[in-house]
Amino acid sequence: MLLSLVVHTYSLRYWFPATVMLGTAPAYLLSWGVWRLLSTVLPTRVYHKLDDRLYSVYQSMVLFFFENYTGVEIVIYGDIPKNKENVVYLSNHQCTADWIIADMLAIRQDALGHVRYVLKDGLKWLPLYGWYFSQHGGVYVKRSAKFNEKAMKKKLLTQTESGTPMYLVIFPEGTRYNPELKKVISDSQAFATKEGLAILKHTLTPRMKASHIAIDTMKDHLDAVYDVTVAYEGTLDPTGRRKPAPSMPEFLCKECPKVHIHFERVDMKEIPPEPVFFRRWLHERFEIKDRLLTSFYESGDADKKSRFPGESQSSPLSISKTLPSMMIMGGLTLPMLLTESGRKLYVRTWVYGTLLGWLWVNASP
């Protein structure tokens, strides 16, 4: 019985925040839908301004759970600009929690509503979220020969020409690095060898296409590229070998005590526009990431292990940044659940929102 209680308590650590985040989605979608209808006769810039505000409210609620609820310590190496900027955010990719790390940095610049993602095509099937991310300015891409370069350029140009603020998150590796997936790592290293590139140990060989298209298409709109390297503390086993990074459920179950974030701002003038030179530049950025991660996981000096080189600072997120959003989303959702008509509207929003998303997926080229 005691074991059962422990297991139940552990599962609640995840199910409580997951239920709140998913449960408020219909209320959020309804609020956004009303604004979308009202804004059809308004300039695109006006639509994006309030859409960004609504998105910021929802994502702040998400961060309430991922930061304040979990109590994770965020350790930052480097100086994050205090002012909002139009940027492309390039990071290594290890787990589903990586998406939240981008939000963690953005909220510290008051730019949370500007976050948009380059996502793999399959994620557009997510109920409600998959369709909405595209409406918010996210870009879905397919890999290899199926990559639709024209569609990505068109979407980014449409947004930049209307002056949409941009905090575009890209993971150039294309898939998550998992130290247990030896074949994925060996295939990536074999590709690097074939192309005459340095072999990377703690990241996969980056793919350049999406990053190059984004930066080249928006070059007159962007202020900088944010080069971000992330390491999750607690991912070394007793023998010193690297373990997989925590999944979202594991993160919410408070299994990650610290997140180490190495930040470097790269000015647009430093980035070569020509594809062949851009490819080399991007790989060199990942060589730097690989050295940082090698030091983090393999340093023989106990004082240097499980941290990045250089000065760092803990960056706690004030609950005043997230709790109001939690209360707003709860205030929008509870009335729907307390009445029969509200519950019917709630269910219909899930059903019709999911159906609309599927229709949009099937209509997409």
Count of separate DSSP helical elements: 12
Order of helices and strands: HHHEEHEHEHEHHEHEHEHH
Shape: globular
If strands are numbered along the chain, what order do they take across the biggest sheet? 4-3-5-2-6-7-1-8
Largest sheet: 8 strands, mixed
Structural class: alpha/beta
- Given as residue ranges, the uncertain stretches (5+ residues, pLDDT < 50) are 1-8, 356-365
Please compute the radius of gyration using only Cα atoms: 21 Å
| Beta-strand content | 5-15%
Measure the end-to-end span.
Answer: 54 Å
Q: Describe it for me?
A:
The protein has 365 residues and is of the alpha/beta class. Helix content is 50%, strand content 12%. It has 12 helices and 8 strands. An 8-stranded mixed beta sheet has the order 4-3-5-2-6-7-1-8, with helices on both faces. β3 (115-120), α5 (129-135) and β4 (139-141) form a beta-alpha-beta unit. The longest helix has 26 residues, at 44-69. It is globular. 34% of the residues are buried. Mean pLDDT is 86; it is low at 1-8 and 356-365.
